[in-house]
Write a structure and sequence with these properties.
Structural class: alpha+beta
Distance between the termini: 67 Å
Strand order of the largest sheet: 1-2-4-3
Helix content: 25-40%
CATH class: Alpha Beta
Order of helices and strands: HHEEHEE
Largest sheet: 4 strands, antiparallel
Mean pLDDT: 82
Number of strands: 4
Strand content: 25-35%
Low-confidence stretches: 4-20
CATH architecture: 2-Layer Sandwich
CATH topology: Phosphorylase Kinase, domain 1
Radius of gyration: 20 Å
Length: about 110
Amino acid sequence: MSKPFFGLIAALAVSGCMADPMTSIDLMKGNGSVSRAANGQTTFRYVVNADAYKGVTTSPEELRKQHEWLIGSYLGEGGYCPNGFQITEETMEKSVPAYVYEGVCR
């Protein structure tokens, strides 16, 4: 086999070991869903991995502020809650682990 072929194999092997930085950013963003009932009430559910901000903040208040900002950004970008939103329930899903926020649009 030729040297260029070995170089290609080595480059592919190394690239397979590199972490994708976008995965870490996606982990920090969380994920949401929105539902609209027949009566017009819009509700949402937003989930953030419990370890997403590990090492970034240890304050529960700061973590909550960050999560509220993420939820507001998600709902605002989608135009789901033009008059704001209210979080009605916050739970910790231990099986994942993740923070789960549920709420309503105003």
